[in-house]
Amino acid sequence: MNTIALFGGSFDPPHVGHEAVVKALQKLSYIDKIVIMPTFLNPFKHSFDAPAVLRLKWLKSIFLDDNNVLVDDYEVSLGKKVPTIQTVTHLLKSYDKIFLVIGADNLANLEQWYHFKELKEKVTFIVASRENIKISKAFISLKVEEDISSSALRENIDENKLPKKCAKEIAQYYKENNEQ
After folding, report:
1. What is the number of structural domains in the chain?
2. Are 75 and 89 in contact (CB under 8 A)?
3. I need a labelling partner for 137 at 20 to 30 A (CA). Which of 50, 92, 103, 124 fits?
4. Are 8 and 38 in contact (CB under 8 A)?
5. How far apart are CA 48 and CA 81, in angstroms?
6. Range of the domain at 153
7. Rounded-to-integer distance, Cα 52 and Cα 47, Å
8. Nearest CA among 2, 46, 17, 55 for reference residue 169
9. What CA–CA distance (Å, rounded) separates 75 from 31?
10. Residue 134 and residue 104: Cα distance in Å, rounded?
């Protein structure tokens, strides 16, 4: 079976928590490939800090040596907000089964996602743990030790929380572009 874990998000910035999710997913024997899908613009947001093409470049660099990881530019190439159901429908043309990876912080508004009922029929959710958020038994729970928020990291950039391959470049970008 051609099975993927779809790990989407803004990745603004990508950080070691994202790497930890990928490492945890790589331990799951029922997943053949991890597809990382950066958004052009998250459907719940009105802007981004780093441009989509730059976030895509960083992710490709970070996961370059991971054979079973594909950084996909589908949403970025569309140049607009893309609902998850559209991406899933697109990917189901190439893959048999999709596990949709979300952070536990998304559980509170999951039912507000565009066409949620259809989405939950097409995917199996894997929920990456976040500190102090209980994950229902209705979902597959993925234990992740790194508890980092991209929004908090944007406010106080810390190279130690950024992927080593691009840490200096990412930190420099956010320091130069987030000056108030």
Report:
1. 1
2. no
3. 92
4. yes
5. 11
6. 3-177
7. 11
8. 55
9. 22
10. 8
pLDDT tens figures, 148-179 = 888 888 888 999 999 999 999 999 999 998 75
Residue 47 is encoded by which pair of tokens? 């802007």
Q: Strands 123-128, 69-71: parallel, antiparallel or unpaired by DSSP? A: unpaired
- Burial grade of 6 (CB within 10 A; 0-12, 13-18, 19 or more): buried
| CATH number of 169's domain | 3.40.50.620
3-state SS record for the chain: CCEEEEEEECCCCCCHHHHHHHHHHHCCCCCCEEEEEECCCCCCCCCCCCCHHHHHHHHHHHCCCCCCEEECCHHHHHCCCCCHHHHHHHHCCCCCEEEEEEEHHHHHHHHHCCCHHHHHHHEEEEEECCCCCCCCCCCEEECCCCCCCHHHHHHCCCHHHCCCCCHHHHHHHHHHHCCC
Amino acid identity at 164: K
Q: Is the peptide bond prior to 13 cis by the omega test (within 30 degrees of 0)?
A: yes
